[in-house]
Amino acid sequence: MEIEEIKNNKKRFLPLLLLADEQESMIDRYLERGTFYILKDNGVKSVCVVTDEGEGVLELKNLATEPAFQRSGYGKALVDFLCRTYQSRYKILQVGTGEVKEGLAFYQKCGFSYSHRVEGFFLQYDHPIYDHGVLLRDMIYLRKYL
Predict the structure, then answer these.
(1) If we measure between CA atoms, which residue out of 121, 21, 136 comes closest to residue 13?
(2) What is the CB neighbour count within 10 angstroms for residue 28?
(3) How far is CA 29 from each of CA 24, 62, 77, 108, 111, rounded to the nearest angstrom?
(4) Which CATH number does the domain housing residue 117 bear?
């Protein structure tokens, strides 16, 4: 397993990024200002994008794993990598996600806990967003102290 930073032509991974954030214009809001990583293990298995939100906060904006390889530890490996890589430069790693038990459970297993909610966040999208059959409305923010 190898994790590599991608600095150029990040959009070549758009199909994978769209698994975690299904509207390209929303990805465009953070992709170029963010730091982009891929996890390779006989091919690209997962990707993530993190951004500096100021005041010691690093935000995980996108974390996606190829569907055939989900639940194989690749997402957790990326979260662990981010924690190790950024613990000397940031105090907090935060992530926003939909209010869906599967996603919340994943982040809780990675050591995140509830921080706050942004009401109506997913209503900004140009179409209804569903995750595991749940219509998303609010963004739930979770934080992990590094």
Answers:
(1) 21
(2) 10
(3) 9, 12, 25, 26, 27
(4) 3.40.630.30
Backbone φ/ψ region at 52: left (φ over 0), alpha (ψ -120 to 50), beta: beta
Give, for all 146 residues of the chain, the pLDDT tens digit. 999 999 999 999 999 999 999 999 999 999 999 999 999 999 999 999 999 999 999 999 999 999 999 999 999 999 999 999 999 999 999 999 999 999 999 999 999 999 999 999 999 999 999 998 999 999 999 999 99
Q: Which of 104, 66, 60 is nearest to 81 (CA)?
A: 60
Range of the domain at 44: 2-145
Q: Which residues pair with 102 in a beta bridge?
A: none
Output the six-digit token pair for 79: 């979260």
Q: Whole-prediction pTM value?
A: 0.94
